[in-house]
Amino acid sequence: MPDVLDASPYDALLLLSFGGPEGPDDVVPFLENVTRGRGIPKERLKEVGQHYFLFGGVSPINDQNRALLDALRKDFAEHGLDLPVYWGNRNWAPYLTDTLREMVRDGRRRILVLATSAYASYSGCRQYRENLADALAALEAEGLELPEIDKLRHYFNHPGFVEPMVDGVVRSLAELPEEVREGAQIAFCTHSIPNSAADTSGPVEEHGDGGAYVRQHLDVARLIADAVRERTGVDHPWQLVYQSRSGAPHIPWLEPDICDHLEERHAAGVPAVVMAPIGFVSDHMEVLYDLDTEATAKAGELGLPVRRSATVGADPRFAAAVRDLVLERAGDERGQEVTPCALGTLGASHNLCPVGCCPARAPRPAAAGADSPYA
Ligand SMILES: CC1=C(CCC(=O)O)c2cc3nc(cc4[nH]c(cc5[nH]c(cc1n2)c(C)c5CCC(=O)O)c(CCC(=O)O)c4C)C(CCC(=O)O)=C3C
Ligand SMILES: [Fe+2]
């Protein structure tokens, strides 16, 4: 028997994710959930609906979260961490409010949240905290006793998140035709967000303009590129590029877009590109459509060999990283000295989002942060 690990004061982990459609009839209601009150142009929505229909109306994201749940439960059991793991989504079943109600009925009082976004930003952090506040408000209205909720820190620079992606890039390079391999460049890809959202994505006094979102991605990109150089003995030039832009065209979002980038690299004589989706935790629709379908077709037109490297998904090293993050946070919560595990130059991210961190356009209550009305 392994030693028993102590997650106290926490009595449950909640995997909190985006959710996705599981059949053609789900696509439109799913997109309505995603875009409620967000001002995304109708044309863009129709287009994005087509991305899902191309895959039978099924996003892979729910199955990937089921696989991650299995991996977490297996890892916890094997290491003597007695902590039940639940799963709830922002935009599709199992909905967060239903999961949280089930957790309260199961007697869970101190809940730790793992969001499937590794980086700072409104979309990846505060929006999930708003979802938690909404769910708590719903349970309060039902007369249930509310649990205490904390959210795990951003884990972009945890080795269990970075190392599987290093393997992925090394593998993708090896899959390129030999004659273009050595000259290949790496395009680290992440979700574009409005420039204004990037600028305010982390504590402004700490990160300034450009924000935590871009700085965190640059740190991960550099870590992976360095590790790849060590593994392959080749220095592959790299860039951070963006994908999945939406919103009105006159509002500036982070650039360059991956498709424009491929065109520009090709024109500059680069013989091949590996697209490494470091902004995402699993190979969901943004990866399957925007990179594997759209960007890969663009590369085909150009005659530019490309490969897309794997996300962490349910890699056992990622599950182990989550265990480590849970124990780190639990120890900290018990007042113990803990040394947070983080690679790169930025250090471990804050445990508690400070007041006003990654703000929304219109302020709304957000749980699990210094400005939570439920603290
Ligand atoms: C930073 C970020 C992440 C990464 C962090 C995280 O993972 O949270 C992410 C993930 C995801 N985004 C996803 C899907 C969508 N995102 C949309 C819209 C938007 N995303 C934004 C940002 C992000 N998004 C933003 C600023 C918008 C504009 C509207 C708004 O301000 O909210 C739209 C609407 C249509 C469109 O415009 O594309 C859809 C359908 C899926 C599910 C994929 C699947 O089904 O497999 C996932 C994992
Ligand atoms: Fe998105």
From TrEMBL:
Domain of life per record: Bacteria
GO cellular component: cytoplasm
Pathway(s) the chain acts in: Porphyrin-containing compound metabolism; protoheme biosynthesis
Enzyme class: lyase
One Pfam family matching this protein: Ferrochelatase
Major site of localization recorded for this protein: cytoplasm
Enzyme Commission number(s): 4.99.1.9
Compartments where found: Cytoplasm
Entry's Gene Ontology BP terms: heme biosynthetic process
Alphabetical list of SUPFAM superfamilies matching this protein: Chelatase
One GO MF term: ferrochelatase activity
CDD domains hit by this protein: Ferrochelatase_C, Ferrochelatase_N
Residues reported to bind Fe(2+): 191, 286
Swiss-Prot/TrEMBL catalytic activity: Fe-coproporphyrin III + 2 H(+) = coproporphyrin III + Fe(2+)
Signal peptide stretch: none
Residues bound to Fe-coproporphyrin III: 59, 128
Keywords of this entry: Cytoplasm, Heme biosynthesis, Iron, Lyase, Metal-binding, Porphyrin biosynthesis
Family from the record: Belongs to the ferrochelatase family.
Role: Involved in coproporphyrin-dependent heme b biosynthesis. Catalyzes the insertion of ferrous iron into coproporphyrin III to form Fe-coproporphyrin III.
HAMAP family named in the record: Ferrochelatase
Protein name per UniProt: Coproporphyrin III ferrochelatase
Organism (species): Streptomyces coelicoflavus
